[in-house]
Design a protein that fits this description.
Elements: H1 2-12, H2 23-69
Length: 88
Amino acid sequence: LYLYIYLSIYTKGSISPGCGCETEQVDDIVQELKLRMRGRGDTAQIQRAEEQISRLDDIDAKLDLIMKHLKIEHLQQQDPPFANAMDR
């Protein structure tokens, strides 16, 4: 990773952390890049979660249409057994 950072920065010409020997500067760059990567990863996870919710909404709508077509009554959602036991 350090070599990659050095080469990518050196070729762009803006910063050249001395052949990777200036470890403090290289470490700062690595830390900043890792923060950016983490942020992008978090954003991507949120996007995937939103896409899954959208797909579930679509599936729910289709299931409702199928049930209506087959004249199946929509069951009321029930609490699981012993759900109230946790309230004590």
